[in-house]
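Ticket 4471: requesting a sanity check on a complex prediction with GL2. Repro inputs:
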Amino acid sequence: MKLTKKQFKQDFEKRLSTKFAIDIEKAGPQEKLAALSSVVKAYYSKIWQEDNEYKYESKKKQAYYFSVEFLPGKMLKSNLLNLGILDTVREGLADLGIELDSIARLEPDMAIGNGGLGRLASCFMDSAASTGIPLNGNGIRYSYGLFKQKIVDGYQVELPDAWLSNGNPWEVRRSDKAFEVTFGGEVWLEDDGTGKLRPKYRNQERVLAVPYDTPMVGFENTTVNNMCLWKSEVPKDLDLQFQNLDYMRQTAMLSAELYPDNSNYDGRLLRLKQEYFFVSAGLQRLIKHYVSTIQRPITHLADYVSVHINDTHPALCVPELMRILIDEYDIAWERAWNITVKVMSYTNHTILSEALEKWPEEMVKSLLPRIYQIILEIDRRRTAELLPKVGAKLVHSTRIIKDGQVHMANLSIIGSHSTNGVAKLHSDLLKDVELHDFYLIYPERFNNKTNGIADRRWSQIANERLSTVLDETVGKAWRHNLNELKLLEAHKNDTNTLERLQAAKFDDKLRLADYIKENNGITVDPNAIFDVQVKRLHAYKRQLLNVLHILKLYFDIKDQPDIDVYPRVFIFGAKAAPGYHYAKSIIKAINEIANMINNDPDVGNKLKVVFIANYNVSKAEIIIPAANVGEQISLASKEASGTSNMKFMLNGALTIGTLDGANIEIFEAAGKGNFFKFGLDKDEVYEYYRNGNYNARDIYEQNPVVHRILDAFVDGTIPNISAEGPEIFESLTTYNDEYFVLRDFNDYVRAQKDLETLYKDRTAWTKASLMNIANVGKFSSDRTIKEYADAIWHVEEKK
Ligand code: GL2
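Returned structure tokens:
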């Protein structure tokens, strides 16, 4: 949009006055943030309205992304960038004596997601808007987002994230578009007098779902998509008469918290309720919209609507759409089923069995009696149809209801026309191993869509210094099309470019060093290698392997004080799930090891270890630009894709990584020599599984380096881990090291050595860094979302 500095200043000052009855001199930072957000909202509202009208009129097919998580982070700068007014507003504010970043920093992160899966959903929302793809988000407006992590005495402490306490300037509450969702009670089928069986209900619990719309502003275009988040409320007619406090409390709980504790029955029940809540509300809204604005027969739904099931949490989309079509629109079963399968598509995000949802049949039956009937019928009809075609074995292994449980992945695959994995390796594993039986029955449904990242956030917003160097080297086209960075390759021998890349990186490292000084009280040398592992804490991601290597370096320095090691700062950021004991023990160990090393005068600046608390999108925006090295060291086959690996690549960090998830594609794109590969590959891992011949204890007994490092966990060398040390030690020795940490240790140390050698040659290193940036184009989520739009949803970009 077009905006002059003068106009902006007027708008801003006026808004402060109309909203808060205050002038700039007296306004506090929160008031400035609120006024600024409100002005920005007014700037995009017109575009939003016009785009909505265009969508109504053109009646083009739209896609709906159902996801129980979104992780957008802060929105102010992203909206400014996408509107094309970031510089104007920054300068306008500067004229008024206000620094944009000091205000933008105050916005709470919108963190209604746990990690990669939620962040991917937000990257997709950003990319869809930016490429003109009509994609609507659909999720839950949790009052409390992902917990805030504090580190106290080395331990993770979880604090609630009341992100809405200052209001949310971006959302629009749409009370007129609320829907009721019902739970429990009894249902039976009754002849309606025409011979048709219709469901009758008694004693149902009713909940009102109120939508809050948040616009997703496209990058320098005319598209504004919508992310709809549902809040649970008591229906108005029950408000006054209802004195049942328990009911009120339960209704509020429904959209209160992201991932409530699911270790007990009540917690799990609430989760299932949440899933049905946003699925039912979202489908009701889209069907109503279809009927009232598209005005075509409901049987044509699949020509206008595509619904994406993001992981299994929204799998109830399948029976809920069936319910609506059959019960509310009188469509015959067969026809309704064909429509449903055409409308639905599904992404699998993990092969870890604990993440593949299953619900006890009894729970589904009592909470969602009509939905349960429909699932039973889907299962029954499918079994009858397939038995003669594929035989009992395949039918049984792929049934939706088995062993008293409802299998949500099975429901998602069976009820949709497309199942995709999120990186080549992951999609192959789905076909060949994890979902092989489904693949035998429905081969045409399986496909791959390698993940991507919303590159504008991770370069133009998070790394302005690098962005400027890129502009000046290859022009600005890359800002719209990341593939344009390929032009950078032509500059790989250009000393001036390499020096400028180094200077940008150094500035970013200084910024992070300042942050670390201020928040951790640790002084780090910006000339050291900044070696970063940021992601959720999980055993399969193997933060522990990183820790063992750090301990090796530490002992090397202790043994030979004048050893030639290049100074390194190891930086961690990771939240552990509140109930994940082992992961929390690793956090404690990292913090105690950090204390030990950082305070050891023998070590000096050679080695520092920093744990940055409360890793989230905003922290990532400071940390990742400053990284020289990104650690992507999960056990091969376990990380479906990973996406931080792509952010590191874009910011010129070199990856040390296993052949896992999207690392493989990054390695192929960056080229040999520009990526430090190590460890078992997935075939070797599966070979161990087949033979059952891995023996971690032997490695501990036979490798003196490993022996000494592991002993440090139990012999008092690392202080204050008398409970955690033995737990970690035993996980590796007694419980046979589930994720082959010890098996990969030597090769990891070798790769780390190679990395250090290359870093000492600054020119060679920077060239390798440049090659990473130049070849990152494929990993833009603009590419990914176009693939979904073309091959799965069949929706068109706005021209
Ligand atoms: C994940 C995968 O673990 C991760 O590898 C992948 O990049 C993302 C997005 O596809 O999905 N699956 C999952 O359940 N979470 C992830 O981050 N939480």
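Notes from triage: Residues 73 and 618 are 6 Å apart (CA to CA). Leaving this open until the requester confirms.
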